[in-house]
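To: structure subgroup
Subject: Chain for Friday's discussion

All,

I'm putting the inputs and outputs inline so they're searchable in the archive.
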Amino acid sequence: MLVGARLTGAWCFRHRRPHCAKAKLTFSSSSESKVLHSIDDEYDGDFLPWLERKAGVEILSVLSIGKSVYGRSLFASEKLRTGDCILKVPYAAQLTPDNLHPKIKSLLDDEISNVAKLAIVILFEQKMGKDSEWAPYISRLPQLEEMHNTIFWSKDELDLICPSSLFEETVTKKDQIESEFLALECFPEVFDHIKLKDFMHAYALVESRAWRSTKGESLIPFADFLNHDGLSEAVVLHDEDKQLSEVIADRDYAPKEEVWITYGKFSNSTLLLDFGFSLPYNSHDEVQIQIKVPDHDPLLEVKLEVLQSHCLPRARDVNGFKSSNDSFTIKEVRSARGRGKGLPQSLRAFARVLCCTSPQELCDLATEAAQNDGRLARRPFRNSCQEILAHQILLSHIIQLTKEYSASIELLEPVTSPSICKRLAFRKQMARDLLIGELRILKSASAWLENYCATLA
């Protein structure tokens, strides 16, 4: 049985570049295949022999480790065809929460997440240094200063993305990690040497590199070095029968061509939060917008009661954050005239409630919902002027957001400016990728709303 899922996505040296590729390994007992060779000296020496000993089988591969414009990457050593297995890693060579020392494991209750438990494994293996049986792998994980997840950004750097919901999501994620860290402080005899910044570093390593299987979160040497391409369909799969993880090529590769994998269909917001990189153009970008009933609305209490009575259950985004009743996700509207390609119906329904001017109108919406599928204000108003007004409310809100995004983008000085350091330049470029992508979504929504109102008029 093959299963596979990233925690929230995947990464290569995810702190390093927009997308990259990594090693392609095959574990086999046959001596006829080509032994993995590396054109990167850092990976010669103890790493591959160690991994082979861990796996208990000979490590074979059709990939070479090299460097591209994105940093260390993996390239096809020979011609590869769609469907070829490019990597196999036995479970025995993977790091999981099961690697926790029994004494430590007995202290941790269910309130400690598997991500935190695996982070603790990393911290304790790091503490052991060269005495750790995982040292060749642990020593090659990205250092704190190499990571660019937004939880590591300074306040000034976070201010660069202030218009985006990623700003608040980053604050929430940092609070979440700190909360788990504080829970660990209840065991000072074991965790007194762990500092918050170290725990946050290890936590981010797990979130950005681990894959989820039926065994839980797993760090897979070499597999977690695979780089992301948003167009790739290759993922890490887990074969429970054979007790191994593998990757299958999703297309043909010529010799010396870089090999890619996908971490999932994630927006730049998710990629920045969890993996520390962005894509110049991301077709999966989306925008979280907040819109609420104004405090000065004379029907405030009535509208809130109606909305509460008919709202859908609160959803969770890919990072586990709850979305409030006035938070909506907008994706790119591909066509201003396309049927069924407009804004979320829940957002348009919210706008129809906003523009109601009497208790009777709200009562009529509630009655209509009860007579149909229970969803409030999902049908256009019979009065076209009122329907236009509802959508003009949305249009006005989105236009204001586009102005805020445009202003923030203008404040980002060119990343080639000699006055900024390399790290800040890199993070400013990621901020630009994020804001420009979300601005594209907002503009597409504006175009759709303008066309809808014009059609009704």
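Points worth raising on Friday:
The chain has a mean pLDDT of 83.
The first helix runs from residue 47 to 55.

D.
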